[in-house]
Design a protein that fits this description.
The chain has about 450 residues and is of the alpha+beta class. Helix content is about 45%, strand content about 15%. Strands 1, 2, 3, 4, 5, 6, 7, 8, 9 and 10 form a ten-stranded mixed sheet that branches. It is globular.
């Protein structure tokens, strides 16, 4: 349909602008109060010089993509999934980075992994069986084992905080874990840990699009897991997105399968002394555009700074603009806002809370601040490539490697249809009706 730029469309412009300004004005007083807090707690830092004597380290980044319904027949659809990575070593003495030659076993090509999944409208239990098989095949572990390990860690961590001077009770089975959780007021679901389909949130059995997104996340985390298990040690592992956990009100146990993989990756990263960095470039943080504008006007556009988003439990304070956003900071996560360049929006970083307490937090606040500055100097270095200045180049490389472009999608579809034809199937039956009619 052709859009005509007439008076009708101008009226639509006016309507949305009026609504936009009404939202701003209705929250301006609360925002100004938050701005005062943020300005007070911002840390401005100087970047490392172009060449220096810092100890070199390795970093990697993962991103995922795919193409839905490349082939379909009635209620059966076949989807293409991809996950890619980039890995580099810093060379501080030369002011550069160099590509690391690493190829985890999961990879089907030098830059990542490609998978095809078949989704169909079916019974929920049968869909779950396929999903569990996909996790086991790609992640290398059963979902039941991951769930048990993650819930046990949640209970252990909460117990140590609640009863720091008491020995940890035995946690040899699910009954022990539930009993210990009750003693510290930690709410877990009543259903068995491995009875997923009754308590995990999942799309309807006949919702391929929703399942496609779950499979895509699993593949990204499987790629991350594979890198962590490689022989190369990474100081930083970047993932695209946030560390948000879906928790039901009053519950402490995540509700999504992908949440358990994300928690498990963080647990294993901690054992490997790797920092997982979740980066959101299109953050849902409210009024981020105003924060950028107001702070840049005070500090200057090219100042590098960061600030930690406060929480009631850690700081005795919560931002007004976040009172209706309980997922920021996420459960089991610590959130920072940071600014490396005016060319890039303020980005959001989430760190694992357990990692943060063991590697950043200190009762000596000067020591804690020094650790934060060193951390952000490291990751600033990884955002200084001239092509992606202000954004992490490994994440950019992973993103470009994983995108499935239309010609590639069509090529995979055509070859798949040809393969079906070689097995005696009628190829026309697997071509999308719109494509057969010339509408796509």
């Amino acid at each position: 349909m052709q859009v005509f730029f007439d008076r009708t469309l101008e009226k639509e412009f006016e309507k949305v602008y009026t609504k936009f300004k009404s939202i701003e004005l209705s929250t301006d007083e609360a925002y100004q109060e938050d701005l005062g807090y943020l300005a007070k707690h911002i840390t401005i830092f100087d970047p490392c010089p172009s060449t220096c004597e810092k100890e070199d380290f390795n970093s990697a980044a993962i991103d995922g993509s795919g193409a839905e319904s490349i082939v379909s027949l009635n209620d059966i659809s076949i989807h293409l999934l991809t996950a890619s990575f980039a890995a580099d070593e810093t060379v501080f003495s030369m002011g550069t980075t160099s590509r690391i030659d690493v190829s985890p076993p999961i990879c089907t090509n030098p830059e990542g992994i490609t998978r095809l999944i078949l989704l169909r409208e079916d019974k929920k239990d049968e869909v779950w069986e396929d999903f569990e098989d996909f996790i086991s095949y790609n992640y290398g572990e059963k979902l039941s084992d991951i769930v048990y390990r993650v819930i046990k860690d949640i209970v252990v961590t909460a117990y140590k905080i609640s009863k720091p001077n008491e020995p940890l009770p035995r946690l040899d089975n699910e009954a022990d874990i539930r009993k210990t959780a009750i003693t510290i007021g930690l709410n877990l679901y009543k259903d068995n840990f491995d009875n997923y389909s009754t308590w995990m949130v999942s799309p309807r059995a006949n919702a391929p699009r929703g399942w496609f997104e779950q499979y895509r996340e699993v593949l990204e985390y499987a790629m991350s897991h594979s890198l962590l298990q490689s022989d190369v040690h990474f100081k930083y592992l970047f993932i695209d997105g946030s560390m948000n956990m879906l928790l039901s009100p009053g519950q402490n146990q995540p509700r999504l399968a992908s949440n358990y993989l994300l928690r498990d990756i963080n647990l294993k990263a901690q054992e490997k002394k790797t920092c997982v960095v979740a980066v959101s470039k299109t953050t849902t943080f409210p009024f981020i555009y105003r924060i950028a504008q107001d702070i840049e006007s005070k500090l200057g556009e090219e100042k590098k700074w960061f600030l930690r988003v406060p929480t009631k439990s850690r700081d005795g304070h919560i931002l007004n603009i976040l009172k209706d956003r309980p997922h920021i900071p996420p459960a089991y996560g610590v959130t920072y806002l940071f600014h490396f360049s005016s060319e890039v929006p303020i980005l959001r970083i989430d760190f694992d809370e357990k990692w943060w307490y063991e590697n950043v937090y200190s009762t000596d606040k000067k020591k804690e601040k020094d650790t934060e500055i060193a951390l952000f100097q490291d990751i600033d270095w990884l955002a200084r490539d001239v092509r992606y200045y202000g954004y992490f180049f490994d994440l950019a490389f992973a993103h470009y490697s994983t995108i499935v472009r239309f010609p590639d999608r069509d090529e995979v579809a055509n070859r798949l249809i040809d393969f079906f034809a070689s097995k005696g199937e009628n190829p026309k039956m697997f071509i999308h009706p719109r494509r057969r009619l010339g509408l796509m």
